[in-house]
Amino acid sequence: MDNICTMHKMHCCTTCRLKLWDTEEGISKITSDGDISRRNADEYDSGLYPMQRRACMKGYSELYHMYSPDRIHHPLKQTGSRGDRWGFCPISWDEAIDQYESYYESSLEKSRKLGYLPVLDIGGIGSFLGTTLRPFGASSCGNVDAAITAALGKRCRINASRPMDMMNSNYIILWSSNPCVTVFPIPYVIRKAREKGIPITVVDCRYTESAGAFATGKNKVPPLICPYPATDGALMAAMSYVIYKRNLHDNEFIKTNCFGFYPNDTVTSRSGETDPVTGEAYYGKTYRVPEGESFEEYLLGLEKEHNGYHGVLEWAARTTGVDAEVIENFAIEYAISSPAFIMSRFHGGAQRTYNGFYYSWMMIALCAMTGNLQKQGGGFGEMRGDDGYTIDLPPLPSEWDEKEKQPILVSQYGIDQVILTGTDGRSMGQLREDVLKMNGIDIGEGLCLDGIIKGAANGNPFNQLANINKRRLAWQKLDYVVTYERHMTATAVWSDLVLPVTFPLENGKKFDRNSAYDSDIHVLNGVLKPVGEGIPDPEVNRMIGRRFNLKQRCLDYGALMKMQWDKASLDPVYQKMHSALLPDFETVVKNGGASFPVTPEEVPVSLMEYAPGTFPTETGKINFYSPFLACRDRTSHKINHACYVPLPDGRESIQTSKGSGERGMRSPSGRYYPLQFITPHAPNRANSDYGNTHILKELHPHMLQIHPEDADARNIHENDLVYVYTDFGCIRIRAHITRSQLPGVIAIEQGTWYEAGDEQYKAYFDTGEGASYHLTPVDYGGCANTLLEDVKPGIFDPFIDCMGFHAGGSACEVSRTLPDWGD
Ligand SMILES: Nc1nc2c(c(=O)[nH]1)N[C@H]1C(S)=C(S)[C@@H](COP(=O)(O)OP(=O)(O)OC[C@H]3O[C@@H](n4cnc5c(=O)[nH]c(N)nc54)[C@H](O)[C@@H]3O)O[C@H]1N2
Ligand SMILES: Nc1nc2c(c(=O)[nH]1)N[C@H]1C(S)=C(S)[C@@H](COP(=O)(O)OP(=O)(O)OC[C@H]3O[C@@H](n4cnc5c(=O)[nH]c(N)nc54)[C@H](O)[C@@H]3O)O[C@H]1N2
Ligand code: SF4
Ligand SMILES: [Mo]
Could you tell me which residue ranges the 4Fe-4S Mo/W bis-MGD-type domain spans (predicted)? Predict the structure, then answer.
């Protein structure tokens, strides 16, 4: 018996090692790093590096996942109406490709009149045939991308602090980040930091696994600070104010490196960047902060509005639910503990809200005003790349001779709106101008969208984007939907044609970079036999490509992989420090990768590489105010400086609207919603993946998490089936009563599969002709996106591509009975 070493390719981007136990009967089990013999294991087990890539419950369950009962074995065609789970019929690959071809043909036919193919194509071959539509925006980190772009410059050029750098810090704040559940190597570094005696505070609106494992607190600052959802910006505003008033800010750093802190700040740019829309160079341009838009004026404005120092703290306490004294102490400890590290790897739930762009900008502002931003052990946590050195591996050549045409970019949060109204939420004028500039096509009075192809790409857009009931109405209007999938996800169910594809572990050998460990290289040893008629994604594209005579190159992937390794090289800086060598090809493949550990002393601080005035922003400085964004006028709230922006249907509205004796936020339908909900990522799923893996469903059942006070007030008991609802829809879910929730805040973990139930709920939302009532099925799958509104956070601009997601903080209600809203 031999182990096959491979990796877990999954949309958590951790890339753990999997060891497949190969027997004559097939793979008998899967283990991971950490299954080493116990003798002499202690040193290896408890050392900081090389970091072990130990799998979580999902990696260990991969065989259950791959061979789950709803694995798709054959191409499937919908014979009933779209969305009918039972209407699918198996067809042959030939029939499937005929059908697929006819869809592209119909779009090509229309393109003769429109100038583009009216198909949203993700991972199909459409962009080789002409101009298609493609979504932009990033649910994981679009809002932090927007803030980085505003404050620090071009997102692709900016690397913030690496998690390993926490070891160099005097104080670690885990802000809206639950790495014990979401990013596996990071808890290991945090554990080591804690062992070293570095104090840790967690800021999360519930008691999390990470708070339980790591939070120590610091002097008068408690281990866990629990703000109400989406109010973190107010907490940061008050902290900034306290730091400023107590003169704990780093004035020299601000004056030399930042723009927009002080009124009338003026700078002549030394930036090497160009305007992404006009292509004009920024260098030599002079920028000035308009009156009232500097950070100092913002802080003094808070003071004026809330009547002085204590008033500001009281306002923040009222808004966030955190004691004024705690806020003050937290601000002081953060400012005096330099270097202090805000670990916020994906900027978590607080970033994934309608005001998350401003929250993220406030975080950068806090780091900048204290000088933490450019310090070893300071700053804020990077989203990927744990140690900062990479192995340079030549890319594989394209299989296609043809060049892709630049697609028309539409916000992924406005796809349904495009179907229903012709625009993704931009004004028709803006959309027309953007498409003309980027694609050279005049779309006239709006975009046409007839079909969706979810091809060779990760994704379950029907399930994972907000406002599913609106999507039901929109997708019913489409001519066709094609999905390449392994399981009958919600998106597959809403398709006309489902094409069975294989899993990475069935897809042969290749190198992979998808990783939370920068300096490591991974090998995907995909040795398992495909199931049924499933084929790899690229093979589907080859089949459909042949129908359109697209020229393809025949590539020998085995030889190419060897070529890649022959040309691979270690980062020269790393190599100099370690005189390390890459292993030979056979060894790297057999071991499923190679690891190049980085010590805390060696971890690079990329932001320190920018001398004053050379950041890739328009001003060349760290922006508290962005002249580019002001000129472009595309920010979600039309505010172009760092500040706190409340959610329209968040905490403040719940506090203030108590009309006619009823508590809660008065929604557009006139209903009152008194609770806030959040939708964290679940330990037993990677987004919607594993939503059908029974062993994991049993291990961690999908339950509404609610505080005993809120449960009592609604006569809800443990395990009761309850309804959660907003104006946008209603889900049915079992209740788990827990003190880990704040009173007034419930949690519904994201990623369960939407399932239209038998009961009906009267929702109220806008499909383009003003808000109106819609009878919608209660979602028995308990998918959080049935409850969420499809708002557009961040910067609504395809030239910048920094749009984020709104996944929580909004108001809702829970009850044991389905609400009857009458006629
Ligand atoms: N197990 C698992 N791992 C995953 C994933 C998964 O689905 N499952 N998904 C992967 C992906 S794609 C991503 S983007 C990352 C996401 O990783 P994270 O962003 O870390 O995950 P979240 O659970 O969304 O948010 C983290 C924490 O934010 C808290 N929170 C929510 N709203 C607020 C708020 O307003 N204020 C504060 N202070 N806290 C708040 C939540 O309680 C939660 O504990 O995880 C990756 N890893
Ligand atoms: N309410 C709420 N919604 C959220 C979030 C939240 O916090 N709350 N988080 C958001 C975040 S951060 C993210 S990243 C998104 C993720 O949302 P998406 O990216 O839309 O969805 P996933 O659930 O990751 O998609 C998984 C599906 O893609 C398939 N798949 C994976 N790889 C491939 C491939 O190579 N080829 C093919 N053909 N199929 C593949 C899998 O089989 C699986 O069925 O969800 C967002 N949605
Ligand atoms: S799901 Fe992510 S964390 Fe879990 S084993 Fe796979 S790669 Fe690792
Ligand atoms: Mo994500």
Answer: 1-70
Give ranges for CATH 2.40.40.20 in the chain.
Answer: 651-815
For residue 102, what is the enclosing H or E element?
helix 93-114
Report the CATH number of the 76-137+394-594 domain. 3.40.50.740
Report yes or no: 221 and 753 within 8 Å, Cβ to Cβ: no
Type of residue numbered 503: F
pLDDT of 384 > 70? The answer is no
pLDDT digits (tens, 9 = 90+) for 748-779: 999 999 999 999 999 999 999 999 999 999 99
- Determine contact, residues 177/346, Cβ cutoff 8 Å: yes
* Centroid of ligand 1 to alpha carbon of 89 (angstroms): 38
Pocket mutation for ligand 1, best pick of 11, 65, 176 (most atoms within 8 Å of C-beta): 176
Amino acid occupying residue 325 = E
Main-chain phi, psi angles of 302, to 5 degrees: -60, -40
Report the share of the chain in percent with pLDDT over 90.
84
- Cα separation, 145 vs 143, in Å, equals 5
pLDDT > 90? residue 159: no
Over 60: is that where the pLDDT of 823 sits? no
CB within 6 Å of ligand 2 — which residues?
A: 11, 139-140, 352, 456-461, 464, 484-487, 489, 501, 537, 679, 681, 687-689, 750, 784-785, 788, 805, 807
CA–CA distances in Å: residue 60 to residues 1, 389, 520, 695, 736: 19, 29, 21, 11, 26
Cβ(56) to ligand 3 under 6 A? yes
CA distance 692 to 694: 6
The predicted pLDDT at position 346 comes to 66
Query: What is the Cα–Cα distance from 726 to 711, expressed in whole angstroms?
Result: 18
Instruction: Report the pLDDT value the prediction gives residue 289, as an integer from 0 to 100.
Output: 98
> Per the structure block, which two tokens stand in for 270?
């030394």
Q: What is the mean pLDDT of the chain?
A: 94
HSE on the CB side for 623, CA within 13 Å?
33
Residues with CB under 5 A from ligand 4 (ion): 140
Taking residues 527-539, report their average pLDDT. Answer: 95
Superfamily for domain range 142-388+609-632: Dimethylsulfoxide Reductase, domain 2 (3.40.228.10)
C-alpha–C-alpha distance, residues 312 and 302, integer Å:
6
In the chain, which segments carry CATH 3.40.50.740? 76-137+394-594
Portions of the chain given CATH number 3.40.228.10:
142-388+609-632
For residue 464, give the ligand nearest its CA: 2
Q: Does the predicted model carry a pTM greater than 0.90?
A: yes
Lowest average pLDDT, out of 34-48, 150-164, 617-631, goes to: 34-48
Of 465, 457, 506, nearest in space to 62 by CA: 506
Indicate whether residue 366 lines ligand 3 (CB < 6 A): no
- CB neighbours of 313 closer than 8 A, spacing ≥ 6? 238, 242, 324, 327, 328
Nearest 5°: the CA angle 789, 791, 797 is 160
Determine how many CB atoms are found less than 10 A away from the CB of residue 570: 20
Quote the tokens at residue 608. 């320190």
pLDDT tens, position by position, 400-418: 998 999 999 999 999 999 9
CA distance 322 to 450: 49
CB within 8 Å of 729: residues ≥ 6 apart = 467, 468, 469, 761, 763, 776, 779, 786, 787
* CATH numeric code, 651-815: 2.40.40.20
Q: What count of other Cβ atoms lies within 10 Å of the Cβ of residue 325?
A: 11
Averaged pLDDT for residues 158-168: 91
